[in-house]
Amino acid sequence: MKIAILGGDGFVGWPTSLHLSDQGHEVHVIDNLSRRWIDAELGVQSLTPMDSIQERTRIWKQETGRTIHFHLIDIAEDYEVFKGWLAENRPDAIIHFAEQRAAPYSMKSDQHKNYTVNNNVNATHHLLNAMVELELDAHLVHLGTMGVYGYSSVGAAIPEGYLDVEVETLSGEKAAQEILYPANPGSIYHMTKCLDQLLFQFYAKNDGLRITDLHQGIVWGTHTEQTRRHKQLINRFDYDGDYGTVLNRFLIQAAIGYPLTVHGTGGQTRAFIHIQDSVRCVELRAAEFTSAR
Ligand SMILES: NC(=O)c1ccc[n+]([C@@H]2O[C@H](COP(=O)([O-])OP(=O)(O)OC[C@H]3O[C@@H](n4cnc5c(N)ncnc54)[C@H](O)[C@@H]3O)[C@@H](O)[C@H]2O)c1
Fold first, then answer.
1. pTM of the model
2. CATH number of 2-291
3. Tens digits of per-residue pLDDT, 104-133?
4. How far is the CA of 188 from the centre of ligand 1 (A)?
5. Nearest of 162, 192, 236, 191 to residue 98 by alpha carbon
């Protein structure tokens, strides 16, 4: 099937692109390379060497004979260009990773808050809006985050899909309702993921779009089966204070004998998923809904 991977140059997007290409799918990466520019803004870089997306796709073709197409599009800024691409290509599935994903970065200043909200909400809304306008019956898989629920409540039983509740009406009677699990974001970034899920709920209800919003925990690991095939296919490894997640930072601190930087009491619990499992999870969802048509 033809799959568009929005944000396919990023940490989760790149191994997902390789994984799906390896399965024989026609993979199209759409990315504005903003993540690479943010590295430059912060003065940091991945610990693993990162080749350009053009070079990485060239190596993949050389190693496997498979083509991953790359399209430089800003889906939050260039709505008409993006819509034009969707109209011409009409993918069977769309996987949406194209958002600013660091909570600390989203809280740095009022400009970073504006950027994160504008980028993430516009990216998601442009996609949904264009799908309806073009009558595109693709299955959309989005990577949300467990942080939507608020970290202190993660121990509660969170249902798949919607929560069945009863609300008291003015007459005092109880009325059954289906609602999303109460959102409780802890940062501007997490708040954009809550806005995303409302957009998904609305477009699924109003326009019948087929959407899966996966709320995973922190994705860790550098290699997947496909990235191991050539040293230039390796994934990024961030360990800075904005994009480096806790395991990566602890690993680097341990490696250089620096005391682990623990925030708060150190009693926090987090869910983790390895990148190999994450890409498999995305693949299962994309394939399941598309073949069910
Ligand atoms: N990394 C994790 O632990 C984790 C956990 C749960 C959910 N997620 C979610 O998964 C998605 C991908 O995360 P990641 O770690 O790969 O992030 P990332 O920053 O490495 O990748 C995001 C990619 O999207 C691109 N992008 C951003 N805005 C864009 C736009 N307007 N137009 C086109 N491309 C754009 C970036 O250039 C980048 O290549 C994010 O939405 C994130 O919230 C990540």
1. 0.96
2. 3.40.50.720
3. 999 999 999 999 999 999 999 999 999 999
4. 15
5. 192
